[in-house]
Design goal:
heterodimer; A: 85 residues; mainly alpha; B: alpha+beta; 6-stranded antiparallel sheet; 6 strands; 39% strand; globular
Chain lengths: 85, 153
């Protein structure tokens, strides 16, 4: 796990991770793009994103939060709450 | 460790049946760690060896994946028994696999499944299938779970 302390440091990593799962280039993914409508990310891909983030950042994302993850910005906000002190 | 499942208990959870049931026994279940270990014996009587391949039996890769997917269902059932007991429909979403060693007649396959994330309607697991301690196939498996309205299955 990285020792960075600001969510800004994670953004590029998280965007790359989402882009890999969505099979797109990071440049194609805007922070506020809607996963389902704009990027074709279905619920199973969203779960894969969640599982990958949990493993990478050693966090637990509660099951109830998963339906709220609809954009990169949502992930930044969530990771911000879970990691950044 | 929480005991061992025999074939009868396995068939209470897995919807698959002969000739498409590829778990013979559940060796161990560790719910806290999110790990299950299952066993499958391959014999000369297995139907697919007739054609895959004549004179050189190799377990097809798709059956290796299916066996690991079925072990993943066991893992889901161990963690979410209240859902598994309702006999939902399980479907594969995505598989990333590496095939490292051929499996053949007489091999005893040990399938280790580790939970990455399990929720009520889906799961992400890693599965490793070994023969004699050597990795034959490893995979990351994503699957979905749909509860049926009917309760008579």
């Amino acid at each position: 796990m990285s020792d960075v302390s600001n969510i800004g440091d994670y953004k590029a990593e998280i965007k790359k991770l989402v882009a890999d799962i969505a099979e797109k280039s990071p440049e194609e993914i805007k922070d506020d793009a809607k996963f389902s409508e704009d990027l074709g990310i279905d619920s199973m891909m969203a779960l894969e994103i969640v599982a990958t983030i949990e493993k990478k950042y050693k966090v637990i994302i509660p099951e109830g939060e998963i339906p709220n993850i609809r954009s990169l910005q949502n992930i930044y906000d969530l990771i911000g709450k879970l990691i950044v002190k | 460790m929480e005991g061992i499942w025999d074939i009868n208990k396995i068939q209470e959870i897995l919807p698959q049946r002969y000739p498409f049931l590829f778990i013979d026994r559940v060796i161990s279940i560790d719910v806290a760690a999110g790990n299950v270990t299952c066993l499958k014996n391959f014999t000369a009587n297995d139907y697919f060896f007739t054609g895959h391949f004549p004179g050189k039996p190799v377990v097809p890769g798709v059956i290796m994946i299916e066996a690991m997917a079925q072990a993943s269902i066991i893992g889901f059932a161990a963690i979410k028994p209240e859902i598994a007991n309702k006999h939902p429909t399980y479907y594969l979403g995505k598989v990333e696999a590496k095939f490292k060693k051929a499996v053949t007649v007489g091999d005893q396959l040990i399938i280790e499944v580790h939970k990455e994330k399990i929720v009520n309607n889906a799961g992400v697991v890693t599965a490793v299938a070994k023969v004699n301690g050597e990795v034959a196939t490893e995979a990351k498996i994503m699957f979905g779970v749909i509860l049926n309205n009917s309760t008579d299955k």
